[in-house]
Design brief:
The relative contact order is 0.19. This protein folds into three domains: 2-84 and 260-280, Rossmann fold; 87-165, Rossmann fold (3-Layer(aba) Sandwich); 178-251, NadA-like (Rossmann fold, 3-Layer(aba) Sandwich), CATH 3.40.50. The chain is an alpha/beta fold. Helix 11 links the parallel strand 11 (227-231) and strand 12 (248-251). The chain has 13 helices and twelve strands. Strands 2-1-3-4 form a four-stranded parallel beta sheet, sandwiched between helices. The chain has a four-stranded parallel beta sheet with strand order 6-5-7-8. Strands 10-9-11-12 form a four-stranded parallel beta sheet, with helices on both faces. One of its GO terms (cellular component) is cytosol. Pathway: Cofactor biosynthesis; NAD(+) biosynthesis; quinolinate from iminoaspartate: step 1/1. Iminosuccinate binds at residues 22, 39, 110-112, 127, 196-198, 213. GO terms for molecular function: 4 iron, 4 sulfur cluster binding; metal ion binding; quinolinate synthetase A activity.
């Protein structure tokens, strides 16, 4: 494994590459990355570097976003089959038809969406800024929220806005059910529960805080609590333990994102050696999708990430 890491580091320098790793990929991939964090924040940081090559250890829509924000750079994903089922739950054609049913509504798409869906949207959002973004939009406007019905319901609850939901969801988060969360809470009654808003709404009252992965990291660092139940994909626990080695983190239930776990060190090395697999968004689609991303950034402060090593 050390030999693989050495080869990756050598190729990274030779090719002037920046390696990005999402919080849900395996821990050894997070450790070797230049930046680890949330998908949009990673793409923004990569755009600010002088790298010629971006290798995104995440799922396909994340590499697309990196390509949209860095059109002059080459973007690779180490496994071309690493997709996002939730992003695939709405197509551009479906969104076009949905917009025709609600012609006066603004479209807010979760960043966990394809480039084509972003291109048809008025604004993008992240799980961490969705509430703030919607609060900033004109109060008299209906809002179509795609693709995640759970995050959209969370935003509707927190803002009181008229939000029309698309019936998409994250297969990994919906496994975190009320019964499972209550069971682990009963086993660790002294633990603080941090849950992602992609979890089913029935679980929300059981959580002490509903947070994005980036917000979970910040909260755990600042909190005086020593024990946490983490209701999201457990890859985040690797980063939590690195930042807070004196604290205990417990999985809410056994659920993983199989697509995120496809991103291994071996595949990262292969990607750097062979320049595979390139992700490039068609120019017209990229320009329209960039507009939705830029509108979000105009309304809200930048999302930050932190170096993983």
């Amino acid at each position: 494994m050390n030999n693989i890491a050495e080869k990756i580091n050598k190729l990274r320098k030779e090719k002037n590459a920046v390696i990005l790793a999402h919080n849900y990929v395996p821990g050894d991939v997070q450790d070797i990355a230049d930046f680890a964090g949330d998908s949009l924040g990673l793409s923004k940081q990569a755009a600010e570097t002088d790298a010629d090559l971006i290798v995104f250890c995440g799922v396909h829509f994340m590499a697309e976003t990196a390509s949209i924000l860095s059109p002059e750079k080459t973007v690779l994903i180490p496994d071309r089959t690493a997709g996002c089922p939730m992003a695939d739950m709405i197509t551009a054609e479906q969104l076009k038809a949905f917009k025709e049913e609600h012609p006066q509504a603004l479209v807010v798409c979760y960043v966990n969406s394809t480039a084509e869906v972003k291109a048809l949207s008025d604004y993008c959002c992240t799980s961490g800024n969705a509430v703030e973004l919607v609060k900033a939009l004109p109060a008299d406007k209906e809002i179509i929220f795609v693709p995640d019905k759970n995050l959209g319901a969370f935003v509707r609850e927190r803002t009181g806005r008229n939000i029309i939901l698309w019936p998409g969801y994250c297969p990994t988060h919906v496994v975190i059910t009320l019964d499972k969360l209550q069971t682990v809470k009963s086993q660790h009654p002294d633990a603080v529960v941090l849950a992602h808003p992609e979890c089913p709404p029935a679980t929300w009252p059981e959580a002490d805080f509903l947070l994005s992965t980036g917000q979970m990291l910040g909260h755990a660092e600042q909190s005086e609590a020593k024990k946490f139940i983490i209701a999201t994909e457990p890859g985040i626990i690797h980063a939590l333990k690195k930042r807070c080695p004196d604290k205990e983190f417990i999985e809410a239930c056994e659920t993983i994102c199989p697509n995120m776990k496809k991103l291994t060190l071996e595949k990262l090395l292969w990607s750097l050696e062979r320049d595979e697999y390139e992700v490039k968004v068609e120019k017209e689609v990229a320009q329209k999708a960039s507009r939705a991303l830029m509108r979000m950034l105009e309304v809200l402060p930048a999302t930050s990430t932190r170096k993983s090593n």
